[in-house]
């Protein structure tokens, strides 16, 4: 098995330049992810402690398995943090179903990723608004909800959201299924005035379950 070990500079624009074995958390921050170009943690291997806008710059054509050793991460279907989003929390992901299995859409591509800096499972707060631009009925959440409607939200859509702390994953359907939208406190200042701001893949205002990101 061919193995490479590297990390990327945390400037969100370039990929691994400097080889490092077992980077220390104190030096490189609280994030570490190891990617593989084959399923079940086989083939070429690289380690990252920060953002990667394009795995093709590391001579990967796709990520087919990976291990999140510390921190929480965004994964993206396309390069430059575009396309469908996937929340990557600590654990092992031997095949694409492990990170997109709850998604209603068949996606086997994972081409870029970055840390979720504001993930804080224990201290998270978000406000949902019935309409765009923080108008209409509102609801403050500090816990996970597998069905917003079952807990009293009067619609299957959300017009806008304000993240006061932490990071959240919103799902199109109940039971944490369908498209995933990851909303974070340190992006847009925590303000998401319209559903189009949830991600480049957002096509609808439909949100029916939501949970906090595990750090």
Automatic annotation (TrEMBL):
GO molecular function annotations of the record: structural constituent of eye lens
Lineage top rank: taxon: Eukaryota
PROSITE patterns: CRYSTALLIN_BETA_GAMMA
SMART domains reported for this sequence: XTALbg
Keywords for the protein's UniProt record, in alphabetical order: Eye lens protein, Repeat
Every Beta/gamma crystallin 'Greek key' domain range: 31-70, 71-117, 124-165, 166-214
GO process terms (BP): lens development in camera-type eye; visual perception
Database matches in InterPro entries: Beta/Gamma-Crystallin, Beta/gamma_crystallin, G_crystallin-like
Its job: Crystallins are the dominant structural components of the vertebrate eye lens.
Similarity-based family: Belongs to the beta/gamma-crystallin family.
The protein, known as: Crystallin beta A1
Gene designation: CRYBA1
């Amino acid at each position: 098995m061919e193995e490479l070990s590297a990390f990327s500079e945390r400037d969100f624009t370039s990929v691994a330049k400097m080889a490092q074995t077992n980077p220390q958390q104190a030096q490189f921050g609280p994030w570490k992810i190891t990617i593989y170009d084959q399923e079940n943690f086989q083939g070429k291997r690289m380690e990252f402690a920060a953002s990667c806008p394009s795995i093709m710059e590391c001579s990967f054509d796709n990520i087919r398995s990976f291990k999140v050793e510390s921190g929480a991460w965004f994964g993206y279907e396309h390069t430059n943090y575009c396309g469908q989003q996937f929340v990557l929390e600590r654990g092992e992901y031997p095949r694409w179903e492990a990170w997109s299995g709850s998604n209603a859409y068949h996606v086997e591509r994972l081409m870029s990723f970055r840390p979720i800096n504001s993930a804080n499972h224990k201290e998270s707060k978000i406000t949902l608004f019935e309409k765009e631009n923080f108008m209409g009925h509102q609801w403050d959440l500090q816990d996970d909800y597998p069905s917003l409607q079952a807990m009293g939200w009067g619609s299957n859509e959300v017009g806008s959201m304000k993240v006061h702390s932490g990071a959240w994953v919103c799902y199109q359907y109940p039971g944490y299924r369908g498209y995933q939208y990851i909303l974070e406190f340190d992006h847009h200042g925590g303000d998401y005035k319209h559903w189009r701001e949830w991600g480049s893949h957002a096509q609808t205002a439909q949100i029916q379950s939501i949970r906090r990101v595990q750090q």
